Amino acid sequence: MKIPFNEPVIIGKEKKYIQQVLKKKHLSGDGEFTQRCTKLMEQTFGAPKILLTTSCTHALDLASLLIDLKEGDEVIVPSYTFPSTVNSFMLRGAKPVFIDIREDTFNIDEEQIVGRITSKTKAIFPVHYAGIGCDMDTINNIARKYDLFVVEDAAQGVNAKFKDRYLGTIGSLGAYSFHETKNYVCGEGGAIVINDKKFIERAEILREKGTNRSKFFRGEVDKYTWVDIGSSFLPSEILAAYLYAQLENMDKILNKRKKIYEYYAENLEELAIQNKIRLPVIPSDCTPNYHMFFIILPIEAQRDKLMNYLKQKGIMAIFHYIPLHLSPMGEKNGYKKGDLPITEALSSRLLRLPFYYNLSRQNQNYIIKEIKDFFRDH
Questions:
Q1: What is the CATH number of the domain that holds 258?
Q2: Does residue 22 sit in the same domain as residue 118?
Q3: Rounded CA gap, 180 and 145, in Å?
Q4: How many CB atoms lie within 10 A of CB 10?
Q5: Does 215 share its domain with 311?
Q6: Residue 358 and residue 223 share a domain
Q7: CA angle at residue 164 from 160 to 170, to 5 degrees?
Q8: pLDDT at residue 219, rounded to an integer
Q9: How far is residue 303's CA from residue 299's CA, in Å, rounded to a whole number?
Q10: What 3-state class would DSSP assign to 1?
């Protein structure tokens, strides 16, 4: 039996919409399906403006440009994240100030933020790990008090909520991912969520190679020209067509993923009660999107042993991020082992289980059985 870690799904009208794009012969960005995607998300999530990008990485790059990060600025960010979160502002010359994570949610420990703020601090980049919201009330209160920007890395948090607000729509700016490993996909893709309206006009310009092309297409200027710095952040209409079919089925995808998540939790609870593993924690003020399911082992050696055992059984279970402060780039920025003890302890013991829309109950039962067999035999 071979069970992959992830498998992208065709859920609805992906092929039909792509055929429509090919028939119209408009393959470049900002066509009909791009507009459909952004309108659907703006209405669903209650965001003033959402712009599709080629990736969440590019959305974060745009956010760093919009808040005008410069050489010498500091950004508070968790170490337990993908390099894109940090690369986006380091490309502007800003420096990461890594913060430890909470033991329950793997999100940035909001209680440690104030102690790391200096006169150089310009922004906080919270990361909503596994689609579980950071404590955005506390983070936004700190940001207001110290006059900081908040850029939400909601790559894993599309269609999840903190309290009554969708992740990505709570800070100054947000970033989404539609990579094929996420809940709603188009292979490669992302979006920037603009919650502060003062950023909208410049975001359109930066996204369109530094031109006012968007104004031209709306008839607001008689010709477009180069007015600012920028780059090409627009995804193809083919990707937007695929994505729109996924976004039309957000509730269907969410409900299926919830069932898979809850089945894992229900059937692995006995091992958790026996303190052989720890299951994910969902705080009462968070509404998840069920992006992933992971277990925490007591020690790293046991995590690795279980991971290899499952691989031998045809099950692709994998670890997640290597903490950025322990990477070669983290060391270059002055960090070392022992600086963020909770991040280091948890990241070394986490194991992600296969999780995707078409994961069958039969395969899920096989995964659960093999995990239980491992603990019985070891």
A1: 3.90.1150.10
A2: yes
A3: 38
A4: 13
A5: no
A6: no
A7: 75
A8: 86
A9: 7
A10: coil
Of 247, 262, 291, the residue at which a domain comes to its end is 247
What strands, in cross-sheet order, belong to the sheet with 190-194? 49-53, 190-194, 173-177, 149-153, 121-124, 74-78, 95-99
List per-block mean pLDDT (blocks of 10 residues) for the chain, which spans 378 residues. Answer: 94 97 93 97 98 98 98 98 98 98 98 98 98 98 98 98 98 98 98 98 95 88 92 96 98 98 98 98 98 98 98 97 97 97 98 98 98 95
Full DSSP string of 243-281: HHHHHTTHHHHHHHHHHHHHHHHHHHHHHHHTTS-B---
Q: Identify whether residues 257 and 194 lie together within a single domain.
A: no
Residue with tokens 């277990």: 295
Secondary structure string (H, E, C) spanning 232-250: ECCCCHHHHHHHHHHHCCH
137 located within any domain: yes
User: Could you tell me if residue 264 is inside a domain?
Assistant: yes
Contact between 150 and 196 under an 8 Å Cβ cutoff? The reply is no
Domain, as residue range, for 280: 250-377
Q: Give helix 250-273 / helix 237-247 axis angle, nearest 10°.
A: 60
* Number of domains the chain is built from: 2
Of 227, 247, 267, which closes a domain? 247
In angstroms and rounded to an integer, the radius of gyration of the C-alpha atoms of the chain is: 21
- Distance (Å, rounded) from C-alpha 52 to C-alpha 270? 43
Q: Could you tell me how many residues make up the chain?
A: 378
What does pTM read for this prediction? 0.96
176 and 260 within one domain: no
Contact indicator for 371, 268 with CB cutoff of 8 Å: yes
Q: How far is the C-alpha of 185 from the C-alpha of 241, rounded, in Å?
A: 11
Residues whose CB falls within 8 Å of the CB of residue 257, separated by 6 or more in sequence, listed in order: 183, 289, 290, 291, 355, 357
Residue 5 lies in a domain: no
* CA 247, 291, 264, 315 torsion-angle sign: positive
Instruction: Give me the residues paired with residue 187 across strands.
Output: 179
The pairs formed by 34-42 with CB atoms below 8 angstroms and a separation of 24 or more are 34/234, 34/235, 34/237, 34/240, 36/240, 36/244, 37/191, 37/240, 37/243, 37/244, 37/247, 38/191, 40/244, 40/247, 40/248, 41/191, 41/247
